[in-house]
Amino acid sequence: VRLGLVLAEIGRVNDVKITEQEVQQALIQEARQYPGQERQVIEFFQKNPNAMAQLRAPIYEDKVVDYILGEADVTDKTVSREELFKEDEE
Question: What is the pTM (predicted TM-score) of this model?
Answer without folding.
Answer: 0.74
